[in-house]
């Protein structure tokens, strides 16, 4: 993989605007996702809860409680937040009332749900070695594909511009493309398979028409290989442990305030970053702060256990 020289280009530096301890102790921030209109961001935590904040002011709106095991993925659709968990459920939450409004339970036989994706009328989920599909309008299961993968299915994604096509990825190193039209089964609806050769952690789409697929493996390799330019931004000084999630704000939402975005990590902190000019000393609007409403103190003998999602 080629890396361009950064000798003639200086990275923009961003300063810490806000720093929020979501909890004191051994709690992690797993994922940060925005609403479509950026009116809120959702943050999944290792406490099996999801919290909601303002992406501009960092105001705390509330939290969603119900999962009894690790929350593996969260995603918005309109005023609903969806989440899946190792407790075997996919839940939908009203972001105005913070109440659960729907739940699909796949926990039979000890199932875990590692990923989910919504199509036009289908909901797909990676459930251990299976890809399960439901009609999300009725919550009725319509298919269970159990012959294509031999290990945990870490990711499922409907292709953005072709909602009848579903891509799955697994610890077995395979990426499968399914056609979800008609009576879905492994024999007739598996279109193609890519063998990456090592465990796949995440996948996504590239290009104007989403014709390209990227994957991130569990040995931290990124495919496809290509040219990577020099760093355009450097964020430093906010975290004291591994950074798990980075969310960059589009210019139309954060640009006027000089905001770069948010990061979350294994130190349990949410950090908001602004351009160095806006975070200069003496600007009281940009000093770091913490909200006492978010603080939960653990017992003194609490031990830190590093979480491995798969």
Automatic annotation (TrEMBL):
The UniProt entry, under Gene3D superfamilies, shows:
YVTN repeat-like/Quinoprotein amine dehydrogenase
Q: Which Pfam families match?
A: WD40
Where are the annotated WD repeats, by residue?
Answer: 64-103
Q: Does the entry feature the keyword Repeat, yes or no?
A: yes
* Compositional bias (Low complexity): 278-288
Is Repeat included in the keywords of this UniProt record? yes
Q: Where is the composition biased (Basic residues)?
A: 299-310
- Enumerate the residue ranges of region (Disordered): 278-310
Q: Which UniProt keywords apply?
A: Repeat, WD repeat
Q: Which domain of life is it from?
A: Eukaryota
Protein name per its UniProtKB record: Anaphase-promoting complex subunit 4 WD40 domain-containing protein
| Organism expressing this protein natively | Brassica rapa subsp. trilocularis
Gene encoding it?
A04p041230.1_BraROA
